[in-house]
Design goal:
Layout lengths: L5 E5 L3 H13 L3 E5 L2 H10 L4 E5 L1 E2 L2 E2 H11 L5 E5 L4 H10 L3 E4 L4 H13 L4 H7 L8 H13 L6 E4 L6 H11 L7 E5 L8 H6 L16 H4 L4 E5 L6 H13 L1 E2 L8 E2 L3 E6 L3 H6 L5 H7 L2 E4 L10 H16 L5 E2 L1 H9 L5 H15 L4 E2 L1 H4 L3 H9 L13 H19 L4 H8 L3 H10 L6 H12 L1
């Protein structure tokens, strides 16, 4: 029995204790039971367990007291709570207090078994945690704090809400939580909520039955079914329409989904991790996001720092990103000139790590293959000029104008002005713009302004003389 998993079941209802104990024994798990908190604490002190299942309401107190006691005294022991049907607030409170997961009464064996299996897998997870979090680059205090938080969140099944600016690594954090968790051998399904048409959203999330609508020629699973046993990452969750928010809330609370056109609900075992760069608190105040869904998603919040919050990690990030990009392109890794490093370190990086990667990717396309100089970094002159002059971006009334398009329009105008002044001599135009000939040629191609390759060659020869 020394190698057998052991579970402590705490519930004052005899029939529930017996049902759970019987189920565990059929799973080859040794089970003890207690009817109150006092007995449970005594048994915890006298024997080592791999899992504790406790009811929320007990004769001598609340199950939350036992959750807190276990979190403080037996930090490595997963504890799950059993709540009354529809007691969403109790479930959220238990998860915030440190509970691994929760079950609702009447207890479903289809939900109990995967919960127990997930909890028992945790004992083999710890050895892989440090290896997985190595993907999070940096050794600053901010990154080390995120790394520690990810390892802690991986030991829970609680929904996690990841906030942070665009490009700060929210999806990477979600993947690391999954990879460190007991669900690591199952699917990680990531979905951009803003990319699904509203009319298709329900069938995409929950699947549909054959004949449910025109074109439904066969039964099709949805995202929840695809992530069953694993993790479903809802990126840009703020983009969900209100009607879909209601359906998502029910799926999370009941751990069941109903396919479009079906009459039967299907139990699913999915951990929800969500993220957005928008302010959900403001959206709730404006009636654009449901408060009850927010509190179900935001049981535990992980805030990803902007790159400006940990600039000391920029050199290491730059090198790792270069290695990654060069490996993908099967090319040698060029060296960064000191001035180029200084320029990178001085950037505000409003686009965070994604902006840094974009700058390096363009630099690789422009450099000579051996070194990256300041010219190769191709920092957007139009954006710099706007920033220096305090120019504000104003989208059109219909919202169609994006910032990249706006910047491109400015850049095109400035390049065309320089070409007109230099009588279409690109070398002279490049000097007027304060960039190299190679940089100007790249921008002309990218902006769709390149016309005469022969003239480019003549200009290049003049430049070299």
């Amino acid at each position: 029995m020394s190698d057998q998993f052991k579970c402590l079941v705490v519930d004052d209802e005899t029939d529930i204790r017996e049902l759970v104990v019987l189920t565990l024994e059929r799973m080859d798990i040794y089970a003890d039971s207690a009817s109150n908190i006092s007995d449970a604490k005594h048994m915890l002190a006298s024997k080592e367990y791999n899992l504790c299942l406790t009811d929320m309401h007990l004769p001598d107190g609340m199950g939350l007291e036992l959750v807190t006691h276990i979190s403080n005294e037996y930090s490595g022991l997963p504890v799950a709570v059993i709540t009354a049907y529809g007691s969403a607030e109790n479930a959220v409170s238990a998860l915030k207090a440190g509970a691994f997961d929760y079950l609702t009464k009447p207890i479903s064996l289809k939900q109990l078994r995967p919960l127990v299996e997930s909890a028992l897998k945790l004992s083999s997870t710890d050895s892989k945690s440090s290896k997985s979090t190595a993907d999070l680059i940096g050794n600053s205090a901010a990154i080390n704090q995120i790394r520690a938080m990810i390892e802690k969140l991986a030991r829970s099944q609680a929904p996690v809400y990841i906030s942070g600016e665009s490009g700060s690594g929210k999806e990477l954090a979600a993947r690391l939580i999954h990879q460190n968790s007991s669900r690591r051998d199952e699917a990680f399904v990531a979905v951009n909520c803003g990319a699904i048409p509203e009319t298709l959203m329900e069938s995409e999330f929950f699947g549909y039955k054959k004949g449910a609508f025109t074109g439904a020629v066969k039964d099709t699973s949805g995202l929840f079914q695809a992530a069953n046993g694993g993790t479903l990452f809802l990126d840009e969750v703020a983009d969900l329409p209100l009607l879909m928010q209601v359906k998502l809330l029910r799926a999370i609370q009941e751990k069941k989904v109903r396919a479009v056109g079906d009459t039967i609900e299907e139990a699913v075992d999915v951990r929800i991790i969500s993220a957005t760069h928008k302010n959900l608190t403001e959206m709730m105040a404006e009636g654009l996001f449901r408060q009850d869904l927010y509190y179900r998603l935001n049981v535990i919040q992980l805030k990803m720092p902007s790159l400006r919050d940990h600039p000391e990690d920029i050199p290491e990030l730059t090198q790792k990103l270069l290695e990654k990009l060069c490996k993908a392109q099967s090319i040698a890794i060029p060296t960064l000139e000191p001035e180029a490093n200084k320029l990178i370190a001085s950037r505000p990086f409003t686009g965070n790590v994604r902006e840094l990667e974009n700058i390096l990717e363009r630099a690789l396309a422009l450099c000579d293959g051996e070194k990256i100089c300041v010219d190769d970094l191709l920092i957007d002159e139009a954006a710099n000029a706007m920033h220096a002059e305090g120019v504000q971006f104003s989208p059109s009334k219909d919202g169609d104008t994006s910032l990249p398009n706006y910047l491109e329009d400015i850049e095109k105008r400035e390049i065309l002005k320089a070409l007109e002044k230099s009588n279409n001599n690109k070398t002279a135009a490049a000097k007027l713009l304060g960039v190299s000939f190679r940089t100007l040629r790249y921008r002309l191609t990218k902006l769709g302004l390149a016309k005469d390759d022969a003239q480019d060659t003549d200009d290049k020869m003049l430049e070299e003389r």
